[in-house]
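User: Here's a chain of 88 residues. Predict its fold as tokens.
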Amino acid sequence: MKLQSLLQKKYGWVVLLVFFALLILLSAQIHTRLDLTKEKRYSLSPSTRQLLFNLKGDIEIQVLLTGKLSAGFRKLKNATNELLENYR
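Assistant: Prediction complete.
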């Protein structure tokens, strides 16, 4: 069914609105990130995944990027924090 013919029906816009609402709710529940970088910068290697899977307890990571930082290091700090939040 074409979008134009759907919108011409009496309640077609309601169907379309419900569809988009469900799509938004579903996307809020499923968070995924595609790593399209050539060097797979945002992906864990299979050996790292296996190592993390075999750990018995939680791990703690301390990132020592605080204080007065140059713009490049602030960017690195923000990217690192975001990456660790995604891994959590």
